Amino acid sequence: MALRQIRVYGDDILTKKCREVKEMTPRLQELIDDMLETMYDADGVGLAAPQVGVLRRIVVIDVGEGPIVLVNPRITLQEGEQEGMEGCLSVPGKIGQVTRPGHVIVEGLDRDMNPVTVEGEELLARALCHELDHLEGVVYTSKVEGELYDAGALDEEEEDGESGENEDSAEK
Ligand SMILES: [Zn+2]
């Protein structure tokens, strides 16, 4: 496994639509391992393949309940609404308010290409929507209501500034 470089806002690749995975390969398995390692290393709760420069429909998420790997994911149900602050590993140091569904169901494939269904509320619903947007070339900043804030300004009282305690501003 290896850390991959996270592409940051302004990089064209983040605005491109990703291609479906037709066949799992050792190379894509390695990509998934690297994405997980890169996400944990950056203290993120999610990462999409285009964020490491690969235009494939693969996302990884861990909101503290263990890793989720989704290949070719699609939202099959969304309902309700939640408001909250959101961040992105590709937009370092920034957060902004985004309204997302309160409850989503996502269907896709796991890393062995077996069908899988993930149901999420709260942070998991937000992370699923955020990561799936990346596969369409959509960065959350286009959905922010109002301003984009410096994440540090809200974290001042935290000693290390990288704590995962403020779940709603976790970077994805
Ligand atoms: Zn993101």
Architecture overview:
The protein is α+β, with helices and mostly antiparallel strands and 172 residues long. The chain has a single domain, classed as Alpha-Beta Complex (Peptide Deformylase), CATH 3.90.45.10. The protein is built from three helices and eight strands. The chain has helices at residues 26-41, 122-135, 151-155, and strands spanning 46-48, 58-61, 68-79, 82-87, 94-100, 103-109, 115-121, 148-150. The strands form two sheets. The protein has a five-stranded antiparallel beta sheet with strand order 1-2-3-6-7, sandwiched between helices. A three-stranded antiparallel beta sheet has the order 4-5-8. A hairpin with a 6-residue loop joins strand 2 (58-61) and strand 3. It is globular. The two termini are 20 Å apart. Mean pLDDT is 92; it is low at 157-166. The structure holds zinc ion. Residues 88-90, 130, 134, 172 line the site of zinc ion.
Over all CA atoms, what is the radius of gyration? Answer: 15 Å
The number of domains is: 1
Widest sheet: strand ordering: 1-2-3-6-7
Give the proportion of residues in helices: 10-25%
Shape: globular
CATH architecture descriptor text: Alpha-Beta Complex
Classified in CATH, the superfamily is Peptide deformylase
Average pLDDT over all residues:
92
Question: Can you tell me the residue ranges where pLDDT is under 50 for at least 5 consecutive residues?
Answer: 157-166
N-end to C-end Cα span: 20 Å
Ligands in the model, by name, code or SMILES, are: zinc ion
